[in-house]
Amino acid sequence: MFRINDNYTKLPASYLFSEVARRVNAYQEAHPEVEIIRMGIGDVTRPLCKAVIDALHKAVDDEADSATFHGYGPEQGYDFLTGKIAEYDYQRRGIDISPDEIFISDGAKSDTGNIGDILAVTNRIAVTDPVYPVYIDTNVMGGRGGELLPDGRWSNIEYLPCTSENGFVPALPKEIPDVIYLCYPNNPTGTTLTRDELKKWVDYCRTYGSLLLFDAAYEAYIREDDVPHSIYEIEGAKEVAIEFRSYSKTAGFTGIRLGYTVVPKALLGRDSEGDEVALNPLWRRRQTTKFNGASYLTQRGAEALYTEEGQSQVKETIDYYLENARILRDGLAAVGYEVVGGVNSPYIWIKTPGTMTSWEFFDYLLDRYHIVGTPGSGFGPSGEGYFRLTAFNTRENTLRAIERLAGEGKNI
Ligand code: PLP
Predict the structure, then answer these.
(1) Atom of ligand 1 nearest to the CA of 132
(2) Is the pTM of this model over 0.85?
(3) What is the mean pLDDT of residues 7-13?
(4) Which of 49, 191, 203, 316 is the most exposed place for a label (fewest CB within 10 A)?
């Protein structure tokens, strides 16, 4: 009889969003007259910009003509897109990344999850806590989690708490990990790290030979000068870091799917003999074997972002979300909540009042103000006592949510 991968059975079912939906549906059924404002899910709400839509239409027409038809493309992405990424996202910011260091994919979830394929099962992982759950779950699937402890942590994973006590800035790990995941601007807290703070991580990885997996899915939301858009803005990062990018929150590609991963040629790991091995060809081998390329249509759509109109149109959409974020952040602060995020990020992270748990605050907001968010405890043990709201909503709903909250003041 064949055996399954036991690691999958170690993973607890993720009840977070289904439990949110269950409670919201039950509440709506009991109170059909109430208009609920949903600020829980991290999906965009604005349509694709015109430059992308035009490019998608044109790409569809290409597929209708044998002279311009495209079947299988290069697994690592078309040159027309990797060239634009290298130029716009890196070289124009003074970062020397070449197109053959860029791998196009169907999104950052796949790549942050799949990267473990080229890493030894013996590597010790460190993550910030709270965290985007994909980093942990995929390492558990790959056999790097150890055992699930009663407090919700995994025995082989080092958790780096990010709470109001440390200003949401993780301390450098006590035990030296082999692989460190950082996501900035952060999901779920919406906080960022400055250039000096990121330099500490790059230096740490250079000193101890750790690999830095840097998730920059929310890079496009950065508005402050001292917050790097890419880990490669930090000197020496090309020797220690892989960077993940996504068009999901940047350009509304959550439905049509596209992202990319940068694996610099200067990045070397060691094999079991202790010999140095470059990661770029390993990831190329992994992708060309297990992935058959993102669609021609989507890549043409993304190419259109690297034009003057494309850049200004996506900026307009992101500015819209950021204004929602500002309204939420300022409005919540004005009625006495402790909030972070929402400046270089679409996420607002709220400290629950008093001793309320994340789920108690969920029920309180739903029942009293008819507002839905995400309990922080769903993102890791250090998320307990916090709550996430997102700016992915209409301006009207955002204003209405704050009116409801301000109408009564922070009343507990
Ligand atoms: N990384 C982080 C931190 C995210 O929050 C998300 C989506 O919510 C992703 C990656 C996934 O991005 P994609 O849609 O490109 O798979």
Answers:
(1) 3
(2) yes
(3) 93
(4) 316
Q: What is the pLDDT of residues 162-220, one digit of tens each?
A: 999 999 999 999 999 999 999 999 999 999 999 999 999 999 999 999 999 999 999 99
Nearest atom in ligand 1 to the alpha carbon of residue 258 is 15
What residues contact residue 166 under an 8 Å CB cut-off, 6+ apart?
none
What is the whole-number distance in angstroms between the Cα of residue 268 and the centre of ligand 1?
A: 26
What tokens appear for 280 in the block?
Answer: 């770029």
State pLDDT tens for residues 73-92. Answer: 999 999 999 999 999 999 99
With a 6 Å cutoff on the Cβ, whether 248 touches ligand 1 is: yes
How far apart are alpha carbons 96 and 361 in whole angstroms? 46
Ligand 1 near 346 CB (within 6 A): no
| Mean pLDDT of the 294-300 span | 98
Q: CA–CA distance from 1 to each of 4, 72, 117, 185 (Å)?
A: 10, 37, 26, 46
Residue of 165, 176, 162 lying closest to 131 (CA atoms): 162
Measured CA to CA, the distance from residue 194 to residue 206 in angstroms comes to: 19
Pocket of ligand 1 contains residue 107 by CB under 6 Å: yes
Report yes or no: 371 and 365 within 8 Å, Cβ to Cβ: yes
Ligand 1 center–CA 249 separation, angstroms? 8
Distance from the alpha carbon of residue 44 to the mean position of ligand 1, in angstroms: 12
For 370, half-sphere exposure in the C-beta direction (CA atoms, 13 angstrom radius) is 16
State the first-to-last Cα distance of the chain, in angstroms, to the nearest integer. 58
